[in-house]
Amino acid sequence: PVKPVLPADIRARKGGTPLVVLTSYTTPMARLVDAHCDIALVGDSVGMVLHGLPSTLGVTMEMMILHGRAVTRGLTKAMAVIDMPFGSYEEGPEHAFRNAARLVAETGAPAVKLEGGTHMAETIAFLTARGIPVMAHVGLTPQSVNTIGGYKVVGRDGEGDKVMADALAVEEAGAFSVVLEKVPEGLASRITQSLDIPTIGIGAGVRCDGQVLVIDDMLGMFTEFRPKFVKRYADLGQQADRAIAAYAEEVRARSFPAPEHAFPDVLKAKP
Ligand code: KIV
Ligand code: NA
Questions:
Q1: Nearest atom within ligand 1 for CA of residue 45
Q2: Is the confidence metric ipTM above 0.95 for this complex?
Q3: Following DSSP, what letter does each residue of 166-198 receive, concatenated?
Q4: Checking DSSP bridges between strand 19-23 and strand 134-139, what pairing results, if any?
Q5: Which of 32, 45, 47, 182 is such that its CA lies 20 to 30 A from the CA of 25?
Q6: Which domain holds residue 88?
Q7: Residue 157's domain is classified under what CATH number?
Q8: What is the pLDDT of residue 271?
Q9: Whole-prediction pTM value?
């Protein structure tokens, strides 16, 4: 299928109508996202949302490739971006390129995303120079949960300069956009004003160049925990619970299947 939105188009959207981004992990969700969004992000959040992992640290290349392929099959307009999983890019630029190239070649997505600011700049430049557009991700970087010590707001109390420096470093390295996660809104606004590439916020206030949410969070499908920045636009989990309960009750009562769901032994002859 044709996927007209490309990283250069996203970059050119700086300061314009906000970019609309949602995560996607499957073909049917990607089709829904494709109809309304600019980017379908195959986030490593897939590990927690669909695979029951306690964090994103256990997500593998194979998982990202499988879900990435499912998502690109569902897209006709929106651009897919695939998260590089923990352990697939941190060692150094060559190692990162090898894995990023696999993600692009095996899924058909034109771009990857990786976590980290100043310390990942060299890798971002290496990938970009060799044909792989990179979306960066600074502020709260969930793959570093064990060194950060939790999923807290990043950039308060004098930490703001570091987040600003990280954002400037990934832009300088050639990233075509940058996710700002759980950054105070004033800081996110200053970063957005300071960069020439679009900022895509999640828990970063309304003044970013775009917004992203985890689709299962905003649909009310994933309810293990609910960060403050998640707005629930639907309660699909609750609806599914009600539907499954009704089915279970009807099966036990032998009221499902009804005659119209069953196959008669003898077909009526046509008149
Ligand atoms: O994995 C993910 O879903 C993400 C977004 C929340 C930015 O990285
Ligand atoms: Na992620």
A1: 1
A2: yes
A3: HHHHHHHHT-SEEEEES--HHHHHHHHHH-SSP
A4: unpaired
A5: 182
A6: 7-246
A7: 3.20.20.60
A8: 73
A9: 0.96
